[in-house]
Structure formats: structure tokens, C-alpha cells
Amino acid sequence: MSKKLIAVVGATGAQGGAVVRAILADRFGEYAVRALTRNPDTPKAQELAASGAEVVAADLDDEASVRSAFDGAYGAYVVTNYWAPLTPEQEAARTRAEMELDQAETAARAARDAGVQHLVWSTLEDTRLFFAGRDDVPSLDDGRYKVPHFDAKGEADALFTKYGVPTTFLRTTFYFDAFLHAMPPTRTTDGQLTITFPMGDRRLSGVASEDIGRSAFAILKRPDLIGATISIAGDHLTGTQYAEALSEALGEKVMYHAPAVEEYREYPFPMAVEMANMFQFYAENHDEFTGARDLAKVRELNPELESFATWLEHHRAELAASLS
User: What pLDDT, on a 0 to 100 scale, did the predictor assign at position 263?
Assistant: First the structure.
């Protein structure tokens, strides 16, 4: 019996790579994986090839390449990278949200034309539905969005429906992996390790990137989930609880600092306003956001689901090395 082929966009990234690894690890061996990447010659791409993936060149800004890469695929996993490094010329040509919308439409058309039977689209909530009419939450991208990296993905959901692609909408959340790279514990001037985000005592849903891959693969094996929106997380913890877990893992006290969201918007780093708006959405839409991510139901889909404590067990050494 021939294997069903799954084409995975962004295969050398966190999400796409996790999907590829989940497929390759499947003990039943019913699926093959085609890893799509802009540059098949990178070490990450070569590692996937050595593990058994078919690695092909494809770029979401080149529809012909994506259409070719989807050819013969039963299923596909599509993710766009809002945070991709861009040249000044690329930044000037279109906003990052416009980039995501363009790329999602490219993927939807390519999947339609290739006859993909089940596509999983990595998406997020459109925060404009929650923040509608709110003047206290700054608008971005000339007033079009509140949290562009959420809102554009939510807006793009309709494109897959428009093109008639059999799609499951996979809503993700904050990566546990962010504590290794994007927002690791940092030392204050007195040497105290601290994590900082403006959520007060509200819980922040988090997930291991590997669980996005395992969950996506589980969905691709379930044609009954076509048309459904599946929201996932691995834990729902307050900032204090994240700090306590980090303290246990590192053997050193980690404190949680929760500035006001207005203060956070003034922090001197790129996209501080967007990130502040995101955390405000997490905090104020807390009950609905966490409620949509029922951990018991997610674990039914993905029995290997990692809590934050489990994720820390697997990444303790990496986390400690990142601090030194």
C-alpha cells in the first residue's frame, strides 16, 4: 500500500519542523512527508533529509513552487512566519500582516489546484472581534489591526474557505520555547532572574512547539475534523506559576514582574506596542481563550501533550545554557 503524502510548509521552522518529526516518528508508517523550505541546502533541511523526509524547495512568495510541492500530496500543513527576517526593501513593500495574507492565499490556491484532500492551517484568534471600538488599545498598520500577527492569520481563515480547500483550523498559542529565545529570564542590576509580561494574575496559555506538530499530525489523520477549529495548549499558568516552575528547573529563584500594559507599550524594543496589545488580549479575554483550549480534550487528540513542567524537564540544560 502506498503511503499518504503530507506536504509541510516551513519545515525548518519550529512548527513545520515539529510536524515533519511527528510524521517521521509515526510507528505505523502510513504517511510520508515532503518538507518544504526556501533553501534545501541548510543544515536543518539536510538533517530532515537524513531522517527520511523528502526535502524540496518552495517559497510562499512563489506560487508555482508551492503548487509543484503540493502535487500528489494527500494533506498539507501551512504556517506563515510573521517574524521572518526581512530586508528593508521587503519591509517597505508590504506590512508583515499583508505578507501573511498574501502567503496564505498562495497556499490556499496551490492546495486547491493540487487537489489536497486535507489541509491544516496554523492560525490564531482575530483580536479585533474582542477589541472592537476600543480606543484604549492602539491600532496598528494604519488602523487595520490591533495585534497584526493574530489578526491577519484570523482574517486569512476565510481564504481557505473561499478556495474550497478541505481545512482544519489549528489555533495555537504562546510557545514555551519563547523562554529559550524570545523572552528568557533576564537578570536585573542586582542579579535577580526575572520574567516580565503584563498579565497581572491572569493565566497565560502555553504549548510546546513539538506538541503543535504532534497535534497537527493527529488532525491530518482525522478527516472528520475537516471544517473544525481546534484550539490547543499544554498548560494554563499565571506568571507567578511560570516563575516558580522555572525556579525549580534552574535551581535559582526566578521572579515574575507584571508591569501595567501601558508601561509595557513604552518599552524600548521593536513591536512593543503589538506585544503589549497581545498580552492585553490574553489577559482580558482570559476565560474564553483558556476555555477554548481544554487540556483534557487536547490530550485526547495528542496523548503525548507536555505540561510546562514536562517541557522544562526536557529543556533544563538548554535553558541553563541560554542564561550563561
Answer: 98
The two beta strands, 203-207 and 235-238, are: antiparallel
Judge whether 197 and 281 are in contact, CB under 8 Å. no
DSSP 100-160: HHHHHHHHHHHHHHHT-SEEEEEE---THHHHTT-SSS--BTTTTBSSHHHHHHHHHHHHH
CB 319, CB 180: distance < 8 Å: yes
In this prediction the pTM is: 0.97
Beta bridge partners of 205: 236
User: What is residue 255's predicted lDDT score, i.e. its pLDDT?
Assistant: 98
Q: If DSSP codes are grouped into helix, strand and coil, which group holds residue 196?
A: strand
Phi and psi angles of residue 114, each rounded to the nearest 5 degrees, phi first: -85, -10
Burial of 321 (0-12, 13-18, 19+ CB in 10 A): exposed
Is the pLDDT confidence value at 266 over 80? yes
Domain count, the chain: 1
* Domain range enclosing 183: 4-323
37 closest CA partner among 17, 65, 13, 58: 58
Which pLDDT band holds residue 322 (cuts at 50, 70, 90)? confident
**Tens of pLDDT along 97-150?**
999 999 999 999 999 999 999 999 999 999 999 999 899 999 999 999 999 999
What is the average pLDDT across 220-245? Answer: 98
Q: What's the CA gap between 126 and 144, in Å, rounded?
A: 12
CA distances from 307 to 213, 262, 302 (A): 15, 31, 12
Would you say 154 and 186 are in contact if contact means Cβ atoms under 8 Å apart? no
Mean pLDDT of 150-161: 98
Helices and strands in the chain: count of H runs, count of E runs: 14, 13
Q: What's CA 84's distance to the chain center, in Å? A: 13
Pairing of strands 118-123, 167-171: parallel
The CATH number that applies at residue 212 is 3.40.50.720
